[in-house]
Amino acid sequence: MVILQILFTTAFFVIVPCILGSFWTVRRPVTPHTVFVMLLSGLAAMLALFEVIVIPCVLLGVPYGIFCWGFTIFLLALSVFLLVRNRKHFIESFGKLLRNLNGWGFAGIFVLILIGVQIFVPVWFRANTGWNPTAAVIQTSISTDTMLKFDAYTGQQLSGLQLSEVIFPLPLLYGIVSKITGISPALLLYTLMPAVWISFAYAAQLMTANVLLDGKQRQETVYMFFVCMLTMFGFYSNRSLFMKLLQESYTWESIIFCILIPSAAALVLTAVKKPRAAASGATAVKKKPSSAASGQTAARKRRGRRKNG
């Protein structure tokens, strides 16, 4: 049962976003970092779809069980369609990523170990921690088969909806996994989700490094090492971004500031760099005819001198 819970969580939060992201990457040239672009853009797409669907369902009072199964079936159908349509793109992208891993060397392996330690520590020290507000909302929604209709602490029915909870109903997304697999909400938040969100955060940082450093692997490894050091020793405040990532990775703040904003910045930088590269290439092409014309002029002058001589 535990293995099935882990597999479903991995499929829901990792494989499905990766497939959804292929909708954008299939039109772009394949690079060793295409898989990370697929993963992060697909995550943004899945969260956007969740927001668009869940907010009307909350306002209309749709039963939570119907929403969970409906949203899951919708994502499954969309993922199967994109997987069949873009299967060649997936094979090429993952093949290029695997070939690129050979160039990471010992330093890259050391960085992966550091990331693994950061995933392991929060899971180990918080696996037996008690209740928290997010887990309480998940359990209340599953028990009452409603969405944000009952107070998670007292169990009393609410007279109205809070705007912040309706706009950012992230517990309802976690509740889908908890309801379908039967995993405890606290166990889901403290053991499985840190592994997912910390991995996503470092994928966003790797994508940023690739854009800033023009795909140079050594410089990317050094960049990732410094990011690991800043994260591991960034406990200077309870409100620091590094503390949020390691201790409360399941919150909206952590997902937005550690994953979505770095990913968006990397995509914007990529879009800005491409027109510049294209412009510089066009300038170089224009210069070539001018050099050829000057060569032809010089040859004509030489011929004229020979005739006169």
TrEMBL record:
<feature type="transmembrane region" description="Helical">
    <location>
        <begin position="250"/>
        <end position="272"/>
    </location>
</feature>
<keyword id="KW-0812">Transmembrane</keyword>
<keyword id="KW-1133">Transmembrane helix</keyword>
<feature type="transmembrane region" description="Helical">
    <location>
        <begin position="61"/>
        <end position="84"/>
    </location>
</feature>
<feature type="transmembrane region" description="Helical">
    <location>
        <begin position="104"/>
        <end position="125"/>
    </location>
</feature>
<feature type="transmembrane region" description="Helical">
    <location>
        <begin position="35"/>
        <end position="55"/>
    </location>
</feature>
<dbReference type="Pfam" id="PF19554">
    <property type="entry name" value="DUF6077"/>
</dbReference>
<protein>
    <submittedName>
        <fullName>Uncharacterized protein</fullName>
    </submittedName>
</protein>
<feature type="region of interest" description="Disordered">
    <location>
        <begin position="278"/>
        <end position="309"/>
    </location>
</feature>
<keyword id="KW-0472">Membrane</keyword>
<dbReference type="InterPro" id="IPR045723">
    <property type="entry name" value="DUF6077"/>
</dbReference>
<feature type="transmembrane region" description="Helical">
    <location>
        <begin position="187"/>
        <end position="209"/>
    </location>
</feature>
<feature type="transmembrane region" description="Helical">
    <location>
        <begin position="6"/>
        <end position="26"/>
    </location>
</feature>
<feature type="compositionally biased region" description="Basic residues">
    <location>
        <begin position="299"/>
        <end position="309"/>
    </location>
</feature>
<feature type="transmembrane region" description="Helical">
    <location>
        <begin position="221"/>
        <end position="238"/>
    </location>
</feature>
